[in-house]
Amino acid sequence: MELEELARIAVDCGFKVHTGLGPGLLESVYEVVLAHSLTQRGLYVQRQYPVPIMFEGIQFEEGFRADLLVEERLLIELKSVEQLAPVHSKQVLTYLRLLNLPLGLLINFGAPTFKAGVKRIVNNHTDGGASTLRIHQQKPKD
């Protein structure tokens, strides 16, 4: 299955979860329900996926934990806050860089509408349609 198709399924499932449960519950509730919804669609989902970090040549396996990893290719980070802060997008981009993944979704179930709470975060990802909801990793200057 193509990465963009995975993202479409994840957004569809997220919308149904937001519609069914409404905004404002704990993040952990949305995590378990969204993981179940994605699994029901036949996708392999890992919860609280370890994101390793390297420091002084040593790899630490549990530097961070991503909320959901779908089919080992799509990262989904969940929030349940009134409004996303810029640091939330940076967090997802950091996870994408550390895992060497091209695409992630940041979903805020605390937003009043699903559309207001979902963002695509890309790490040098070029597939798929145009989206205004993109954050691109800047390449270092030589």
Description:
By secondary structure, this protein is of the alpha+beta class. It has one domain (3-122). The protein is 36% helix and 29% strand. The protein has 4 helices and 5 strands. Strands 1-2-3-4-5 form a 5-stranded mixed beta sheet. Strand 1 (45-55) and strand 2 form a beta hairpin. It starts with a helix and ends in a 20-residue tail after the last strand. Residues 128-142 have low confidence and may be disordered.
SSE order and pairing:
Elements (H helix, E strand, L loop, with lengths): L2 H19 L5 H14 L4 E11 L2 E13 L3 E6 L6 H14 L3 E6 L5 H4 E5 L20
Helix pairs in contact: 1-2
Report on the biggest sheet. Answer: 5 strands, mixed
Q: Mean pLDDT, rounded to whole units? A: 88
Q: List low-pLDDT spans.
A: 128-142
Taking the alpha carbons of the first and last residues, their distance comes to 36 Å
Work out the number of β strands: 5
- Radius of gyration, in Å, reads 15 Å
Proportion of residues in β-strands: 25-35%
Strand order of the largest sheet: 1-2-3-4-5
Helix and strand content put the structural class at alpha+beta
| Helix percentage | 25-40%
Per DSSP, the total helix count is 4
Overall number of domains? 1
The gross shape turns out to be: globular
| Order of secondary-structure elements | HHEEEHEHE
